[in-house]
Amino acid sequence: MSLRGFRPSDVPFVAGIVAEALQEHYDPSLYLSLSVDWPDGFLVAADPHDVPVAFLLGVSQVDGEARILMFAVERHHRTEGIGALLMSTFLDRCRDRRFRRVTLEVRVSNATAIRFYTRYRFGVVDLLRAYYSDGENGYQMARGLP
Ligand SMILES: CC(C)(COP(=O)(O)OP(=O)(O)OC[C@H]1O[C@@H](n2cnc3c(N)ncnc32)[C@H](O)[C@@H]1OP(=O)(O)O)[C@@H](O)C(=O)NCCC(=O)NCCS
Q1: What is the mean pLDDT of the chain?
Q2: Quick check: CB of 101 below 6 Å from ligand 1?
């Protein structure tokens, strides 16, 4: 598995991972427009054929802060450590940019992701009522960067 930056040709693969893993639909043009502001914040893990199997899309909309907008590993490649690789690389890039804080949102029912984020020292800072398109609540989680 190799880690690299996002490319426009990744869009259909990233959209496929999102549809399966996150139960949300985004306009494909969103990925392209979000990749422009902070290219190093959009990480893709690709298989030996260079096909994306996981990605982490981070943005910086608040000064000194990064926000993880989307993060998913294709089902058949979970628990192989790819999520950990993406997250630790992303946090390094945040430190390179001297960000002081990282935030994210997660479904309250997503125990696997919440456990994963907790291991990376994220804590719940807010409850976001009916945050998701199907009405489910979300947690906002955040961590500081030393
Ligand atoms: C959350 C998510 C990104 C984690 O990615 P991942 O690649 O599975 O994460 P890792 O493999 O690095 O670690 C996950 C777990 O597998 C375990 N693991 C890692 N390598 C392993 C191995 N070789 N064998 C067995 N278990 C292993 C880790 O210890 C960890 O266990 P724990 O959470 O029970 O303590 C992934 O589950 C996912 O895509 N979920 C669906 C989308 C989603 O919910 N995204 C977050 C939305 S906010």
Answers
A1: 96
A2: no
Residue whose CB lies within 8 A of the most ligand 1 atoms, among 56, 73, 140, for a mutation test: 73
Classify burial at 89, counting beta carbons within 10 Å of its beta carbon; exposed 0-12, middle 13-18, buried 19 or more. middle
The CATH code that applies to domain 2-144 is 3.40.630.30
Region 90-111: what's the mean pLDDT? 97
Instruction: With a cut of 90, say whether residue 2 has pLDDT above it.
Output: yes
Q: Which pLDDT does position 96 carry in this prediction? A: 96
How many whole angstroms from 78 Cα to the centroid of ligand 1?
5
pLDDT at 26: 87
Domain ranges for the chain: 2-144
As beta bridge partners, residue 54 has 45, 73
